[in-house]
Every structure is written in C-alpha cells, then in structure tokens.
Amino acid sequence: MKYVIALDQGTTSSRAIVFDETGAQVASHANEFKQIYPKPGWVEHDPEDIWSSQINALKTAVEKADISAGDIAAIGITNQRETTLVWDRKSGKCFHNAIVWQCRRTSPIIEQLKQDGYEQEIRRVTGLVPDAYFSGSKLKWLLDNIEGLRDKADKGEVCFGTVDSYLVWRLTGGRAHVTDATNASRTMLFNLKDQVWDKGMLRMLDVPESVLPRVVDSSQTVGVTEKSILGREIPICAMAGDQHAALFGQACFEKGMAKNTYGTGCFLLMNTGSEIVPSRFGLVSTMAWRLDGKPTYALEGSVFVAGAAIQWLRDELKIVTTAAETEGLARSIPDNGGVYLVPAFAGLGAPYWDMYARGTLVGLTRGTGRAHIARAALESIAYQSMDVLEAMTEDSGHPLSVLRADGGATANNFLMQFQADMLGIDVVRPRITETTALGAAMLAGRAAGLWNDAQLGGIWRSESVFTPSLPEETRAKLKAKWKKAVSKAERWTDD
Ligand code: ADP
To answer: pTM for the full model?
Structure first.
C-alpha cells in the first residue's frame, strides 16, 4: 500500500492527514499554535510556530498511521492563503513574524492605491478587489518598515513567500523557492491571464522582482524533503491554497461546478473553466488550479458570518450549549414563524457590500421563542450562501445544477436540507468532509503517478444528497422576506 500525506497549514492549526491509495483517511494529527495580536487589528504568526506545529503534526500522523517512510509516495501542501513571510536567502532566518491574512495594518496602503485610481487596473490584472488581505501590500509594508530590508532585497538576499512557499523552502532545506499558481493569485502581484508576476503591479507596490518565488503548477514535484525529517527523502508533489484545494477535493473538475465550505464563515468557489469571469457583484476571479501549465479559473465569494452566528447563539445569547442543538430546535417548529436574523455583525459582503450594515433580528412577536431564533440563525447561513451563489451564476451565465458542501456546519442536516430548498438544487455532502486536505492529497497523488485524472473523480464519494422539497411558492415568499430583512439591516450605522 502506498500513502499520500496532506499538510494542511491553517490559520489556527497545522494538520497532517495520511490517505491511502484508495483515498481513505488513515490517520491525522493537528496542533494549534499561537495567534499574536501586537495592536488592535494586527495579526501575526511566529514562523517557528508554523514550522514546528506542522512538522510535529506530520511526524505524529505518520506514527499514528504506523507506516514506514518508504511507503509515502508524496506530500501535498495546502495552506492559509495570503499570509506573508520574508526570510534571508542564505541563513533561512525570517526577518519578521508572518503577517496573517486577517491583519489590517496595510489598509492605508490600499486606501492610497484606490485614491490614486488604481482599483480598476488591480481588478483587471489580478482579478482581486484591492484589499489589505492580499499579500502585496503586506510585502510592501515589510520592505518599507524593516530597516535595511530593501537594500538586502536589491542585492538578492531576501526571499518572499506565502506559507506554501515557506514550508517548501524549509522542507527542502532551502533548495526550492517556489509557490503555486493558486497562492500566487492571492498576492495581488500576479497576472491572472498571463500567469506571470506582473511588472505593473510590482511597480505599483514597489516590490523588487528578486524576492519572488518561481511560480509552479498546483500538481507538480517541486523537490524532496530533507532526509532528517522522516528518515528518507519524500517528494513534495503539490501546493494549493486551502479553498482551491477544497474545490479540487470536492472533485469540481468541470466548468460550472461549485462548492461551499460552511465554517465560521462560508467560502464559495465555482469552477469557470479556462475563462476568467469578471464579476459585477464584487466577487473575485481567482485560479482554481494549474495543471500541466494549463490554468483553470474560479469565481470566489464569501459570507463573513455563518457558523459564527451559531457560536453567537451559544456564547452570547446562551440559548444553546452546543452548535449541534440548533438542529433539533429548528425542527421543533413547523416554520420560522416570520422571524429573520441578518447576522451582519461585521457589515455585509457580496452582493450587498455594505460596511455600515449591522446585525438585525426582525419579525418578532409575543410567541417568538429560542427555537425561532435558532432556526433564523441557521436559515441565515443558507440565505446568505444563496445570495452569493446567485451572484456567481449571474456573473458566469451558468445555472448551478448541484452544490457540494463541506465544513463543520454541514453536520447540520436541517441546514443542508434548507439550503437545498432555497437553491432549488441538490446539495451533496461527501464521505470525506476534510476536502481541503483531500484536495491537496489528490493533487499530490496525481503528480506522483498514483492516480490519473479518471481515478481522481472516483476518490470523491457522496455521503448524503439533500433534494429540494419546498413548493416554489413558499421558496419565493421566504426569499422575498429575507431580502426585506436585509434591507432593514442595511446602512444601519452610516449616520
Ligand atoms: P472553521 O474551519 O472556520 O474553524 P469548521 O469547519 O470547524 O470552521 O466549523 C465550525 C463552525 O461550524 C462553527 O462556527 C460552528 O458554530 C459551526 N457548527 C459546527 N457544528 C454545527 C452544527 N451541528 N450546526 C450548526 N453549526 C455548526
């Protein structure tokens, strides 16, 4: 038996999952690590924490699986996206903590770019909306704020990388300075169409070319791990950002297929094939993956508050003690009783884009109880996902025929059924819901020759299918009321 290991380096934990050659999960291990908040709105990770938590997860997962290093055919890496590191090309030492994607310290840089009229160009070249999330402004900040870094960079002594890049650098003992096209597409420095670092963007952000990694395919052998790590050299055969890996792990290989990850927030991606689809609703165009030099693109949108609304019920309102309880509560009443929660705790994203919106609970009557509020919170996850998917189908001109779901909140059968009802299409939950790790393993197994493209489709298997059963008339009424509720939440704080 041969095995593939996925390293899933996330925002709060580093995981390693061992898959066998049938695509079944054999063992896994995860380590949480420290979040560093130097100032309000600033978020950092210690690169040593990222590294040691990941290596420990790898070694522990291999031990738990009770396999020998010689049976490991490949390692695939998937990672928190956009998080930015810079290190010394000779010593490998990082010049600063990693600046995490959530960190807002570079908002002023982005505001300036917008004021200078660069928004359209950034959209056109990178597919992204200008935002401090993406690596470009973070890298500029590091070059501007670390003394002597620019000089060193000009001399070719500095490496920049996102987490995939940093892990590969260290795993290979500094022999490979690479990133894959999906991670590159989140830097705001990469030309989505031409598949190269964009000279205009580099000028705009004052980034010297010398620091950049070489861009490789998402499924390609980029080097081998140092022998000291697992006792023998293991090929590193894939790299992909977490959401991209999840789209692959959901086997959304054909144009028009989409997945939604239901976690703290929701992340929706739709495969748009070889075509870059510009969005009219503020979604971003991004890489899905690049295989054999051939790019596949995607539209991406997110819901800021999804599972977080359930945490709010549990931690602030205290009307449930576990997230899972919401399912029984929602089913204990025949309908929502006219109660709608718009969890715009942090404003509203696509397609509304209203930073002034705030959370709103409407339709309360004397008979409203905690079941109604729990149900309204679950329904809000489905309504918000519906709004993003409708924007995607309008942008792409492709009606969706099925939605593949993953993430922690997909355990909730009420939510899955209600999602299917509101979309009017099947919602499918796969057997392996760790789709991010599975996707990285599939990409790696493909490059290692373990699976061909036909076999990859067979690794993904459905566990449950939720089929819409709500009459069209009821669906239309619920949707109209939801839109009305959203209108009550909009522009709440703009005075
Ligand atoms: P993340 O990766 O964003 O941390 P997960 O995929 O682990 O998220 O999912 C956790 C989220 O899912 C939490 O916000 C939690 O409230 C929600 N959640 C977990 N189980 C359920 C459930 N049975 N019903 C509704 N929400 C749930």
So the answer is: 0.93
